[in-house]
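Lab meeting minutes (informal)
Scribe: AK
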Amino acid sequence: MPITPLMPVYPRCDVRPVRGEGAYLISEEGRRFLDFASGIAVNLLGHGHPVLTKAIQDQAATLIHVSNLYGSPQGEALAKRLVDATFADTVFFTNSGAEAVECAIKTARRYHFATGKPERTTLIAFQNAFHGRTIGTISATDQEKLRSGFEPLLPGFRYAPFDDLAAAEALIDDTTAGFLVEPVQGEGGIRPASPEFLRGLRRLADERGLLLVLDEVQCGMARTGMLYAHEQYGIVPDVMASAKGIGGGFPLGACLATEKAASGMVIGTHGSTYGGNPLAMAAGGAVLDVVLAPGFLDGVRATGDRLRQAIEQMIPNHDQLFESVRGMGLMLGLKMKSDSRRFVAHARDHHGLLTVAAGDNVVRVLPPLTIGQAHIDEFVSKLSEAARSYVPPSDD
């Protein structure tokens, strides 16, 4: 059988969306799906949000792309808003999360090079993480399913169990540049770090002259109910990768850093053809207009609490399938006693409910941040119906 025009690297399902309305996707056959996947935490304002749509339309009619050879009033404006709202002093814009993590890795290594410690090139990363699919980011990711067949991988990474501070400390040596960690593991199963772990990494970085690099590609940009998840822990990173929801669905990522951490990133050390283009900046600005509006983050936290409580109340009715719910804000994970991927497919195909499977037999629940009580009620109803009709395989 000949190869398909689209390279066959995705196990694509039969849902073929052509239109979106708020928290719903509509297929080419006209079937409506309740979208609690949000493009894997990307469409944080849902589909067709008027603020985002108008910003993209207006900018597309004005200027889409020039080059980073020229001044960027659009990029300067969005970078200033991010600096004002976060720990960061400077921002580099990318097209994706993997590129943002790549920039973060380069920033950390270059910092030590510029400060006279070029031997400090190794980042301590953590098991079950997901940092992207470039050669650099799979080298930072200790998962065989992502790495197999792509060797030789890049040196400069060591791996400790997630949430194990003592194990991370034991890996520090004279070549260590810092730590690379997700405050909440997404693909790894919606696993929030403990406060002791993240605060301990911050302490170790300070004591040993290392950098704390956070991957907030999935958990950042209001997803957990704070602008960035590390705010829940009372710490600040030195460098942070952001993407997914930052553009509301338009391809956009960012590497944020303190002035100290970015001291080695000077002219010629990094670049991007499309990164920071005016259209992406308009999308990012529209997202900030919404999420930084008074009361929005409070609403995400309150909605997340209501959704979590509704799931917790449902679990005892189907305790043969479901174990617990975990996560923060509207980044929740439903731990299953059965194969989560099979259940996600069943809920999608038979009940019109879109969620995302993750590691550790977890169903990721990642709705738009704009959902209301009616969406929560519909979600729990569809989830209960899917649980009632689901027949686990006999070996589960």
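Next up, CB showed the second protein from the same session:
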Amino acid sequence: MLGAGSDDDRTVICIACGESVPRSAAREYDKTGNRWERHDKEFEHLCKDCFRELSHQPRAGLESLLVDIEGDGLSETEFLKRYLDRVDDDNAVEEPDS
């Protein structure tokens, strides 16, 4: 039977706010971006409030953008300035063709 032996009664910790919530009141978060591939994975969790606050925009190209602007000894302020300058550029992050 579907759901038999389910451990939805367990408690998980929200990775954003640190609150302990019932698994049934949480959303799975997969840092690789593929929550549908479940084999050999342990998911992190977000409470519903924190999940709602997430940006659900595509992340394609984000990692390469961050690597491109990263520099040795760069202050947080300078890093954020460079990031904002790049994302304001229309060609900063190219979206894959659908």
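CB comment: Confidence is low (pLDDT under 50) at residues 1-5.
No objections, moving on.
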